[in-house]
Design goal:
The complex is a heterodimer. Chain A is mainly alpha-helical. Chain A has one domain (about 55-65, about 90-310): MetI-like fold. Chain A has eleven helices and no strands. Chain A has helices at about 5-10, 35-45, 45-65, 100-135, 140-155, 155-165, 170-195, 200-210, 215-250, 260-270, 275-305. The longest helix of chain A has about 35 residues, at about 100-135. Chain B is mainly α. Chain B has a domain at about 90-270: MetI-like (MetI-like fold). Chain B is built from twelve helices and no strands. In chain B, helix 6 (about 145-160) packs across helix 9 and helix 10 runs antiparallel to helix 11 (about 270-300). Chain B is flat, with a radius of gyration of 24 Å. The interface of A and B includes residues 158, 272 and 310 of A.
Chain lengths: ~300, ~300
């Protein structure tokens, strides 16, 4: 504003407004809470978005794929053994003439079911043990921590194999066997967080108002540990898929004619030199699922736990 | 003093853990359906009884258990039920030669490559190498070793005919199995080193080093890398365990006469003593590996005395 303009201003042009007491208290913008902030951070993470995208696509095919050609995963047809992809056998056929498209997506379905079930068991046991152990402390904590310590040091592969030797291998037994050791990391994470949170003022406030232990745990503490819990669950899924594949390899996984991605990769690797496509399709799907969940987990960690970000 | 106390406590835990594993394995194994006898229906009852008697399989379970524990303490794992009475200890030692060679080679190769990749990525923070390292890190964690094994043996072995795809004998036979196991190690190692290096490079003492007029190499290797290496040692344990686990399957794919092969077979034919032997062997191997790494960590990093390292 130039000197000349300034001179043209007259006192009449101004009006006395006074001070508005409440205006300072008003939010200028919409409130950005923890979850909103997390979603925003998550959205800008391209790795995580790719991961989510792959999971959605594979999830879609795992359930809709089997409907796309008229075959099923167990019918054998000797006339078309070991055929490379042709007509509507999009992935070709295996050594029994079974349609590989069907087997691959059915296998993906089985692998995902096992992984989600195992993650669910991990979640239930891990959160319960971890929160009880962290919140109550003392003798309860002592006992639970000794159990955790021993389970933690037993090689998980050995326990899993032993459990599957007695159970009949199927989706639920495999998921159970995986979570026998799988819940331990979850319990450790939750316990560490609860230990940190339980001395916060809001817990004291809740106690003072007469809230019971159960209420404090489920309404105040566990919701505040949700971030690390979600991250741990996301990483539990690829690990379960890996171990399931592993079990199929040593003959303790899903029993034929049912297939999982692991058993398909195993079958494929037997005829690798002659029919490489039998390995490549299921192996690609397996790797994509693992990749997607790892990317998603990394993204969630960045979004939900910005302090861990590096 | 703390160190000794910590070591002893850990040793105590190891023994308890091992005992639990042995006991659980023993009883679970005996609840398996079927017996270790081959062609059981065709065996005359007399011969059957005699075999059962020879191997002590007719005794009540608790007696068998006590006998087993007694022999175990003396380092005797018994005789295999399917390999014509060969001693399990002997078989394990034989198989371990192949397994350990492949495993160690994979670990060393993976750590060295991962180290270089991680350091390079951190120095070119945000650059091309950094992006490559990130991709390697994510891919290495996502592609299981047995898929790697399949891919390598197809491309390198079958398509390009560079290296043998299976069996055992010359040094060439060890390359592909080790490579497929080392991919995961490279991924994890480079990731850890990169994160630590980026953090360390940001520290005040790096500025001090620069201000003193030290050369770039001295700064990176003397000051940055040494501090970044310390946390990286902690991943060595889990990485070694991962290799041990992975070798079970990778050995099967490459038809290597290692322990993994015995293990897979012993489960399929109910060879009680061999299952026990391999399980115990793996358990000891894994427990000792983790133990050694934990102790190493305490020795290497003077800031973290072991009491703190436990949490």
């Amino acid at each position: 504003m130039s000197e000349k303009n300034m001179k043209s201003l007259t006192p009449e042009m101004f009006e006395f407004v006074g001070m508005n007491e409440s205006a300072g208290e008003e939010m200028a913008r919409e409130r950005v809470g923890f979850w909103k902030d997390a979603v925003r951070r998550f959205r800008t993470n391209w790795g995580a978005m790719i991961g989510l995208f792959i999971i959605l696509i594979i999830g879609f095919f795992a359930f809709a794929g089997p409907l796309m050609n008229g075959y099923d995963y167990e019918s054998q047809n000797i006339a078309i053994q070991n055929m490379e992809p042709f007509e509507d056998h999009y992935f070709g056929t295996d050594s029994f003439g079974r349609d590989l498209w069907q087997r691959t997506w059915n296998g993906a379905q089985v692998s995902l079911q096992i992984a989600f079930l195992a993650a669910l068991f991990d979640l239930l046991i891990g959160v319960t043990v971890g929160s009880v152990s962290g919140y109550f402390g003392g003798r309860v904590d002592m006992v639970l921590q000794r159990i955790v310590e021993i389970l933690y040091s037993i090689p998980n592969l050995i326990i899993i194999i032993l459990m599957l030797l007695i159970f009949e291998p199927g989706i639920i037994p495999i998921a159970l066997a995986l979570s026998i050791t799988g819940w331990v990391p979850m319990a450790r994470v939750v316990r560490a967080q609860i230990l940190k949170l339980k001395s916060q003022e809001y817990v004291l406030a809740a106690r003072t108002l007469g809230a019971g232990h159960r209420h404090i745990l489920t309404r105040h503490l566990i919701p505040n540990v949700m971030g690390p819990i979600i991250i741990a669950v996301t990483f539990a899924i690829p690990s379960a898929i890996f171990f399931e594949a592993f079990l199929s390899f040593i003959g303790l996984g899903i029993r034929p004619p049912l297939a999982s991605l692991g058993s398909l990769v195993f079958d494929g690797s037997k005829f690798l030199q002659i029919y490489p496509y039998q390995l490549f399709y299921p192996a690609t799907v397996l790797c994509l699922i693992m990749l997607a969940f790892n990317l998603l987990g990394d993204g969630l960690r960045d979004a939900l736990d910005p302090r861990m970000r590096k | 003093m703390d160190m000794i106390k910590y070591t002893l406590t850990r040793l105590g835990y190891m023994i308890v853990t091992l005992w639990i594993i042995v006991t659980a394995t023993f009883f679970l194994m005996h609840s398996l359906p079927g017996t270790p006898l081959q062609n059981e229906e065709k065996l005359p009852p007399l011969i059957r009884d005699q075999i059962m008697e020879t191997y002590g399989l007719n005794d009540p379970l608790p007696v068998q258990y006590m006998n087993f524990l007694g022999r175990l303490v003396q380092g005797d794992l018994g005789k295999s039920l399917t390999y014509d009475g060969r001693s399990v200890t002997e078989m394990l030692l034989e198989g371990f030669q192949a397994s350990s060679f492949i495993g160690m080679q994979a670990l060393v190769f993976g750590v060295v490559v991962g180290l270089f990749l991680g350091v390079a990525a951190a120095l070119r923070h945000g650059g091309l190498l950094d992006n490559i390292a990130t991709i390697v890190a994510v891919a290495g964690v996502s592609i299981p070793s047995f898929v790697m094994a399949g891919l390598l043996s197809y491309w390198v072995g079958v398509k390009w005919q560079l290296l043998p795809t299976a069996l055992w004998g010359t040094y060439e036979h060890t390359i592909l199995p080790s490579l497929s196991l080392s991919f995961f190690v490279i991924a994890q190692m480079s990731r850890y080193i990169r994160t630590e290096m980026v953090e360390v490079l940001d520290q005040d003492y790096m500025k001090t080093a620069k201000a003193k007029g030290l050369g770039r190499q001295a700064i990176i290797f003397r000051h940055a890398l040494r501090n970044a290496l310390i946390p990286a040692v902690t991943v060595l344990g889990p990485l070694a365990v991962n290799i041990i686990t992975g070798s079970l399957v990778v050995e099967t794919i490459f038809a290597i006469p290692g322990i993994g092969e015995f293990f897979v077979q012993s489960i399929q034919v109910n060879d009680y003593t061999l299952i026990m032997g391999v399980t115990i062997f793996y358990a000891v191997l894994i427990l000792v590996t983790i133990f050694v790494v934990d102790i190493l960590y305490g020795i290497i990093d003077p800031r973290i005395r072991l009491a703190g390292a436990r949490e």
